[in-house]
Amino acid sequence: MLQRLYRRVIALSAHPYAPLWLAIISFAESSFFPIPPDALLIPMALSRPRAAWRLATICTLASVAGGALGYAIGFYVFNELAQPLLQFYHYDAAFARFQATYAEYGLWVILVKGLTPIPYKIVTIASGAAHFDFAVFMAASLLTRGARFFLVAALLRRFGDPVRDFIERRLTLVTTVLAASIIGGFVILRYV
Predict the structure, then answer these.
(1) Domain presence at residue 71
(2) How many CA atoms lie within 13 A of 130 on its CB side?
(3) Number of neighbours of residue 154 by Cβ within 10 angstroms
(4) What does the pLDDT look like over 60-81, one tens digit per residue?
């Protein structure tokens, strides 16, 4: 089933309404959809290199808007569904500790996970469930999702087809190195 869905997403990249589909998939992936927008962004940017920046912008804005929905799901629905279970199993204190830890380290979680292909919906829903500061969440999401999609667009615009295979095989490595560099820079600034 997942393979069929993936093939459908690839087929959408050639459709005249592909930018609209890119926005829809980017939005949905941030809160519930299983296929990342890269599956559509890559073939679209390869077929129209001059549109790469516009496509990255569409991806970024739609992904961040979808992140707001994921946050709302975590903020409102998580409490409605999970709170009775947490109380039943006496996990109220454990959840309070999770919220406190997320309040302290949530920005780092958003910055790191927003750059990687790890499902962004996990971050959006967890941020809402932890009642993380919404403005900080949105700013960090805009920064990291933008960096991720614009990196893909820049590589595709500059190097074209040869980079497609590299990105599809090594996107995790590229974004992890970038995330590690950002974290390393903050650590160095903090302790130096």
Answers:
(1) yes
(2) 24
(3) 15
(4) 999 999 999 999 998 998 878 7
